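Sequence in, structure out.
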Amino acid sequence: MAKIGNIELGEFPLFLSPMDDITDLPFRQLCKRHGADVLISEFIASEALIRDAEKSRRKMLFAEFERPIGIQVFGNDENSLLRCIDVVADARPDFIDINWGCPVRKVAGKGAGSGMLKEPEKLIAITAALVKRSPLPVTVKTRLGYDENSKIIVTLAEQLQDVGIAAISIHGRTKSQMYRGEADWTLIGETKANPRLHIPVFGNGDITTPQQALEARQRYGVDGILIGRAAIGNPWFFEQTKELMQSENSSPLSVASRVAVCREHLLAAVDFKGERQAIFEMRKHYGAYFRGLFDFKRFRIPLVSVTTLDEVQAILDQIDAHYTE
């Protein structure tokens, strides 16, 4: 039974990995209904949160049925992060996740996210201070190291455990790799196999099918898996993976099911963000919902061009009719 502190997560939890501008409340709730065991918010800048920025505050909103849920924060200034811990704790998530893994320039280039892997001593010191400050369990999401010559994750995970984190999630690339090349799960497995490490180790990176999730569990012995990009347009990835683990089989999806779930996502987004913003932000999801459909271009271009809910609804009706004739 995997745990974060005293929070039981199940035998092999499937996490929805935090993704900026993707894992908002409507999408998280959709994934929860389709089998995600643990949810994590979009990552939130500590500086914005302590300035009481409305967008950052909204990222912390969640419903009770989303539990267990973590709120993820990032930053490079210890004082700002400490103040941020107080704000996040007031929102009453189940745990607080520290992002030492984001590789994008606007984050890592400022020394936050995986940029902190260049200064592991500072990373450990700040994490220790955050753990001490937090009334909730603190977890860390990070990478193998800063670059090919500094893959320090086995040692780093042990050091993070020693300062009190409750669990660690590891993406199988370095900061320098960004999202290029293949994720290296070997070091994730070595971290899990370290006899001095007793906290849960969750793996992340290039899990694009339920079969790969099952293989990662069997080969590397991790305590759970984070599903990121594979869940975009495919929130039922979680229940398919569970079906496969239980029966070595998973059900295919009909076009009608894809349309229904896409519509559910759209309506939830409109309810949460308003029609104009939701219509715009949903555009990045449509291609994923209908990936692989023959001659879908005729529908994709209108979907990303129309500006009202009624227009999108009409196109979804057309997709349903066209592919189920």
